[in-house]
Specification:
Chain A is of the alpha/beta class. Helices cover about 45% and strands about 20% of the residues of chain A. Chain A has a 7-stranded mixed β-sheet with strand order 6-2-1-7-8-10-9. In chain A, strands 3-5-4 form a 3-stranded antiparallel β-sheet. The chains are: A alpha/beta (about 280), B alpha/beta (about 200). Bound molecules: S-adenosylmethionine.
């Protein structure tokens, strides 16, 4: 009886391997090195909601119905985000990274895995307040085009604005947060001036390569969904994309410590996971 | 039974309960323990540090991809779900809240069942919601061992009551008896005996 359930679990794991291979071959999105527990949970939830009998049935459906692939893509890319998430991170940027960026006449920033853009607008606000927005070129990328569409518009539901205002203040905001958006009855739209130097673009960290040389990369709460091997590959991509002395900011529970490139970075702020590419 | 891991969920009143339970475990306690305690998303790792200072056994807030080691207590960080991988390492996720909670006890329990099958002990302590009831049921169905804190003793009894209703646990005990029971099971594992607690019928 227990043997039986072990066996079933093995078969489910095999089915998952196969569906991920099928998705990669057909649609080019590669989830084969994502955290297995995460992928399995999301697929089994979707299986349940779709009233299908097995992952194999799901594989058939995803191969024949591109719309269903879009559903799975949304399931597998966790898009939860907020303005000034982890205010301490922004405080640390202000203190330890902005002064260096100020020494450049022009600099580039890459937000990788930017989701619906809240993090990007937060950073744009920070650059405004530090008086160096005009010197910046900001690339914000994600592999999910739906979230990029939302990010480009910069319109968000109003109900979280109170929480965001508190985050903004905790992040060292120097103005009134309402200076940066216009409120309608159920939504807010961020000020056009924040968008001027932003470029939103599709980029897949797993399958796409270096596209610019940048001074700062912010990639938060994306690596947690990858296995160690893929984390190493993506960190190498970041390493190659950074100028010497460039900065990398990760999510508060992500670390370079156990990756291959650890020696090639200096720790700038251990609590906020800010690193600096060592000069060679 | 050779249990390989303990998963534990607690909510309202949980900090106090853990403060009592964890220091009762001896330094050589060998089964890794993974804990989801509902906690405000902005709190720091104070709880882990506090419990570590009080306890013989090592208590820490988890790092992502960390392997589960004997003699360790792992606590989920605020605002992240904790998932156990089948290779017995830990993953974190920021996905939507479940049962209004992140971290969610159900998500920990459900992924732990996939990783450990019947070699798993699930424990529900005090709390004012019903997170964990579904997960405990899954542990039970997979042949794992389930313990719920006695609702009469729990600071908030809704979570223990929900868990008892849903999963018909092997034991319903006060905190001190939970500690004694766990130590006994651990000692039996270390001495190679299989625990008799499955067939003694005092519940
Ligand atoms: C949890 S969100 C993080 C959002 C934001 N950085 C934050 O911390 O609030 C993770 C994002 O990573 C994106 N993502 C996942 N895999 C990716 C990949 N291979 N390439 C690019 N983006 C990816 C998802 O679409 C999602 O928007």
């Amino acid at each position: 009886m227990i043997k039986e359930t072990d066996n079933i679990n093995h078969t489910v794991n095999l089915e998952i391997e196969l569906i991920l291979q099928a998705i990669f071959n057909k649609y080019g999105y590669d989830f084969r090195n994502y955290s297995k527990a995460h992928v399995k949970r999301r697929l089994l939830n979707r299986l349940h909601a779709s009233k299908l009998k097995s992952i194999s049935e799901m594989q058939h459906k995803v191969l024949y119905e591109p719309d269903y692939f879009e559903t799975l893509l949304r399931d597998l890319s966790i898009n939860v985000t907020e303005m000034f998430r982890d205010p301490g991170f922004y405080l640390a940027l202000r203190k330890e990274v902005i002064p260096i960026l100020k020494t450049y006449p022009f600099f580039k920033v890459w937000h990788a895995g930017c989701s619906t853009g809240e993090e990007v607008y937060s950073f744009a606000v920070l650059l405004m307040e530090e008086g160096i927005y005009d010197r910046a070129q900001i690339y914000a990328t994600d592999f999910n085009h739906d979230v990029l569409d939302i990010a480009k518009k910069g319109i968000y539901p109003i109900e979280r604005i109170k929480e965001y205002t508190a985050n903004y203040q905790a992040a060292g905001g120097t103005q009134s947060f309402s200076d940066y958006y216009m409120a309608n009855y159920d939504s807010v739209i961020y000020d056009q001036s924040l968008k001027k130097n932003l470029v939103f673009a599709e980029h897949n960290l797993v399958t796409d390569s270096v596209f610019a040389e940048v001074n700062l990369i912010i990639c938060r709460n994306v690596l947690i969904y990858f296995n160690k091997e893929l984390q190493n590959r993506v960190i190498s991509l970041f390493y190659e994309s950074l100028i010497n002395g460039g900065y990398l900011g990760l999510g508060s529970k992500e670390t370079l410590q156990f990756t291959n490139k650890y020696e090639k970075f200096a720790v700038v702020n251990n609590d906020e996971k800010i690193y600096k590419k060592k000069l060679l | 039974m050779l249990y390989k891991a303990i998963v534990l969920g607690a909510s309202a009143g949980g900090f106090y309960a853990l403060r009592k339970l964890i220091p009762m475990l001896p330094g050589e306690f060998s089964i890794p323990i993974v804990i989801v305690q509902h906690i405000s998303p902005t709190s720091d790792n104070y709880m882990a540090r506090f419990l570590d200072n009080l306890s013989e056994i090592k208590v820490k807030e988890v790092d992502e991809k960390e392997p589960l080691l004997p003699g360790h207590v792992y606590i989920a960080p605020p605002n992240y779900h904790l998932l156990i991988e089948e290779d017995r390492t830990i993953s974190l996720s920021t996905e939507e809240k479940k049962n209004y909670s992140r971290p969610s006890i159900d998500i920990l329990f459900e992924t732990a069942v996939l990783a450990f099958g019947k070699e798993l002990i699930g424990i529900i302590l005090t709390g004012a919601n019903n997170d964990g009831a579904e997960g405990l049921k899954k542990i039970k169905e997979a042949g794992g061992y389930c313990i719920v804190q006695d609702p009469k003793e729990a600071e908030a009894n809704a979570m223990p009551i929900a868990a008892i209703k849903k999963s018909n646990p092997d034991k319903i005990l006060g905190l001190t008896d939970i500690a004694i029971h766990l130590i006994e099971m651990d000692t039996n594992i270390k001495s190679g005996k299989t625990s008799k607690s499955n067939d003694t019928s005092n519940n």
